């Protein structure tokens, strides 16, 4: 975007940078006092497997390869808007010729990406922007086989980065990648982060149907090992159509190429306004390459040169297209050199992808694989177990030690740090505790959040009920009134808001995530006398309008099922699922269909017959 400053462009710099130690670790304060009873002292939850931030030394090694590289991630038959895909005529004479020829041959015939036309923007305007650096030295001493590239991304939760699948699929970001937030400047050759923070990647997810050939379903999420301070930006909802009306002004952000004449990317963050184009206009130019409903294109038709053209380009891949402070698209692909006459920039359409993406942003995940897992307790010896989902089956259980003294355990992530938390109610006095992992110390902390909740008929941790991207808590009191406790994103809650009365009729109130495929958190409730099971569709608001009119979906008597669990998306398709156990001990998975009707769940799938031994399902 705009004219590159003299000497300011970068491509293929073979350098070593020294990242400050502070950039490699993030201090996470432990909120509140630690409460340890004799029962709690036996708790032995394991540390998350991939939860340790990278050391400063490891980041230095990755950065040396990443900053020097100019590979094109996810090379396909059309141009993805990623890093430099060919050697520049201004290549430094200090660069390895073998590295140059290797890169050129591997990227022949590919398509590329950038922001051309536009202006420098500020961190205040885009505090959520993230730099994604990937550097793999392939385990050799030679630089000729190194893989190094750059993509953009956006912070959509404290540990979650939304980006493009072509930047993620096929790469090991945990081993070879890092993310920089909190700055509008790219990393300098001397290692200056310009006030930003660098952090390794804990886990990665890309849309399971991403196609490297068509660049369809081009969305992905990186999870960081600790929260960043950057203010998140929201994704649009699946019901959003107004943002995609032709002529709507959208803004694209990135550090990509600023000219079709050079391969240099911008040293400072740029922004450019692009009008949304109709599907008809996009199809007229791109034909079958443009997939209506999965893609959106934006911008005025390119002129054939930099003059008069405003477009995303190489290096902008994965960055956000924003309308009214919400992400409506992810930079995906375009034409080579980005200025071909009549061309538009193409983005993954977020209204289509927010439903499969959101469970990756707000999940109940213990193992780090983006499938919601189970936590159960043995009724005799009070041992707690993690049982990880494999999609439609379960892995072998893992012990979490002894968890006696509780009559309620719930899975959640109240502080949005990407680690599974537990909400616990102590049987003796009804006190409710928040148990959460602290990455900086590698320990678990326990904080009192509810005093004497012994009479609460039900407590539920369904995720974000109010639509503010922060996990909430629900409770039914002794008189049958349902209350929402709006989460603050740090383990604390705002004053409770009354939803309505009459909830004493239900012996089961469960939910985590979206059952109706509309991007809002829903509830499932069973009438204690009739066994009728109702779906309460969420509206994304607080108070009496938090849930729509109930919909009867089935009838499950107490002799049919005597225990239930709702932990989110167990199967990995983006829709919340439900678990039910028979009195004999068979646990069934009811996959959500996204339908607000009697067809809300698919045919049940047995997950095993030994679940009678458990008295608590989290």
Give a brief description:
By secondary structure, the protein is mainly beta. The longest helix is centred in the first third of the chain and has 13 residues, at 56-68.
Verbal overview:
The protein has 618 residues and is mainly β. Helix content is 8%, strand content 31%. The chain has six helices and 38 strands. The strands form eight sheets. Strands 1, 3, 11, 12, 13, 14, 16, 17 and 18 form a nine-stranded mixed beta sheet that branches. The longest helix has 13 residues, at 56-68. It is globular and about 70 Å long. The two termini are 50 Å apart. Mean pLDDT is 82; it is low at 1-41 and 83-114.
Question: Which features characterize this protein?
Answer:
single chain; 618 residues; mainly beta; nine-stranded mixed sheet; 6 helices; 31% strand
Q: How big a fraction of the residues is strand?
A: 25-35%
Number of helices: 6
- Rg, Å, rounded: 25 Å
Q: State mean pLDDT (0 to 100 scale).
A: 82
The biggest sheet, with number of strands, parallel, antiparallel or mixed sense and barrel status, is: 9 strands, mixed
In one word, what is the shape?
Answer: globular
Percent helix range: under 10%
Distance between the termini: 50 Å
Uncertain parts: 1-41, 83-114
How many beta-strand elements? 38
Supply the helix-strand structural class: mainly beta
């Amino acid at each position: 975007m705009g004219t590159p400053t003299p000497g300011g462009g970068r491509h293929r710099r073979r350098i070593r940078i020294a990242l400050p130690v502070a950039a490699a670790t993030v201090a996470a304060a432990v909120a509140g006092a630690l409460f340890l009873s004799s029962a709690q002292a036996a708790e032995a939850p394991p540390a998350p497997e991939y939860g340790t931030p990278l050391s400063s030394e490891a980041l230095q090694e990755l950065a040396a390869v990443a900053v020097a590289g100019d590979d094109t991630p996810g090379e396909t038959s059309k141009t993805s808007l990623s890093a430099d895909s060919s050697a520049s005529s201004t290549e430094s004479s200090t660069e390895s010729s073998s590295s140059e020829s290797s890169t050129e041959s591997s990227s022949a015939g590919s398509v590329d990406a950038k922001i051309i036309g536009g202006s420098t923007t500020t961190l205040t305007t885009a505090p959520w922007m993230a730099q994604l650096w990937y550097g793999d030295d392939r385990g050799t001493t030679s630089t000729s086989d190194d893989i190094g590239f750059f993509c953009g991304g956006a912070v959509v939760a404290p540990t979650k980065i939304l980006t493009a699948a072509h930047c993620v699929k096929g790469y090991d970001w945990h081993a070879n990648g890092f993310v920089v937030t909190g700055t509008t400047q790219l990393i300098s050759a001397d290692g200056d982060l310009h006030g930003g923070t660098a952090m390794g990647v804990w886990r990665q997810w890309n849309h399971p149907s991403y196609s490297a050939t068509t660049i369809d379903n081009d969305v992905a999420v990186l999870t960081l090992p600790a929260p960043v301070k950057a203010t998140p930006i929201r994704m649009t909802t699946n019901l959003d159509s107004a943002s995609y009306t032709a002529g709507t002004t959208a803004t694209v952000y990135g550090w990509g190429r600023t000219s079709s004449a050079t391969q240099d990317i911008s040293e400072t963050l740029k922004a450019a306004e692009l009008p949304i184009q109709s599907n008809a206009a996009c199809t007229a130019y791109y034909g079958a390459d443009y997939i209506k409903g999965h893609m959106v294109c934006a911008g005025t038709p390119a002129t054939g040169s930099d003059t008069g053209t405003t477009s995303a380009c190489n290096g902008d891949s994965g960055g956000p297209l924003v309308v009214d402070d919400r992400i409506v698209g992810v930079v995906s692909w375009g034409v080579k050199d980005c200025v071909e006459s009549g061309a538009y920039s193409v983005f993954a359409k977020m209204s289509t992808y927010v439903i499969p993406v959101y469970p990756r942003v707000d999940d109940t995940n213990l193992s780090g694989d983006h499938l919601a897992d189970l936590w159960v307790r043995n009724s005799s010896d009070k041992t707690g177990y993690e049982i990880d989902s494999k999609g439609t089956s379960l892995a072998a259980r893992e012990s979490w030690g002894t968890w006696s003294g509780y009559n309620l355990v719930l899975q959640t992530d109240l502080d949005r740090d990407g680690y599974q938390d537990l909400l616990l109610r102590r049987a003796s006095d009804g006190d409710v505790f928040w148990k959460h992992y602290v990455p900086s110390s590698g320990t678990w902390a326990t904080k009192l959040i509810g005093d004497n909740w012994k009479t609460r008929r039900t407590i539920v941790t369904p995720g974000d009920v109010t639509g503010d991207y922060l996990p909430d808590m629900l409770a039914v009191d002794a008189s049958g009134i349902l209350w929402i406790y709006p989460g603050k994103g740090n383990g604390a809650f705002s004053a409770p808001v009354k939803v309505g009365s009459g909830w004493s009729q239900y012996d089961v109130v469960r939910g985590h995530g979206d059952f109706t495929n509309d991007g809002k958190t829903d509830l499932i409730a069973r009438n204690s006398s009739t066994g009728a099971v109702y779906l309460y569709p969420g509206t994304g608001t607080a108070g009496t309008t938090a849930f729509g009119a109930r919909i009867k979906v089935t009838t499950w008597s107490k002799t049919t099922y005597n225990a239930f669990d709702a932990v989110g998306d167990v199967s990995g398709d983006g829709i919340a699922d439900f678990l039910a156990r028979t009195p004999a001990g068979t646990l069934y998975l009811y996959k959500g269909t996204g339908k607000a009707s009697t067809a809300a769940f698919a045919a049940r799938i047995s997950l095993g017959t030994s679940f009678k031994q458990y008295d608590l399902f989290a």
